[in-house]
Amino acid sequence: MTQLLLFLVALLVLGHVPSGRSEFKRCWKGQGACRTYCTRQETYMHLCPDASLCCLSYALKPPPVPKHEYE
């Protein structure tokens, strides 16, 4: 009986653990993640609505817009 009770308690606790993907809010058309700090493989793009950083992988970062030179 105690094993059954322990099993039920374990199921209840594990049922409340959030999945890893829902830990961060998504940004930049779903490609980035809102975090306090960006990892070394990511760059900061803009601020998320909650004032955290929108971190985007370097592989997904759009190329810079070329500046026009006036002669």
Write the layout of secondary structure elements.
Elements: H1 2-15, E1 25-27, E2 32-35, E3 42-47, E4 53-57
Antiparallel strand pairs: 1-2, 2-4, 3-4
User: Spans with pLDDT under 50 lasting ≥5 residues?
Assistant: none
Task: Tell me how many strands there are.
Answer: 4
End-to-end span in angstroms? 86 Å
Helix content: 10-25%
Radius of gyration: 21 Å
So what's the oligomer here?
Answer: single chain
Question: Outline, from the CA principal axes?
Answer: rod-shaped
- Major β-sheet annotation: 4 strands, antiparallel
Strand content: 25-35%
Per DSSP, the total helix count is: 1
What is the succession of H and E elements?
HEEEE
Structural class: alpha+beta
Strand adjacency order, main sheet: 1-2-4-3
Mean pLDDT over the residues: 79
Describe this structure in words.
With 71 residues, the chain is α+β, with helices and mostly antiparallel strands. The protein has a domain at 22-62. It is 20% helix and 25% strand. The chain contains 1 helix and 4 strands; from the N terminus they run αββββ. The protein has one helix at 2-15, and strands at residues 25-27, 32-35, 42-47, 53-57. It has a 4-stranded antiparallel beta sheet with strand order 1-2-4-3, with no helix packed on it. The N and C termini lie far apart (86 Å). The mean pLDDT is 79. Pfam families: Defensin_beta_2. Keywords: Antibiotic, Antimicrobial, Defensin, Disulfide bond, Secreted, Signal. Has antibacterial activity. Disulfide bonds join 27-54, 34-48, 38-55. It is found in: Secreted.
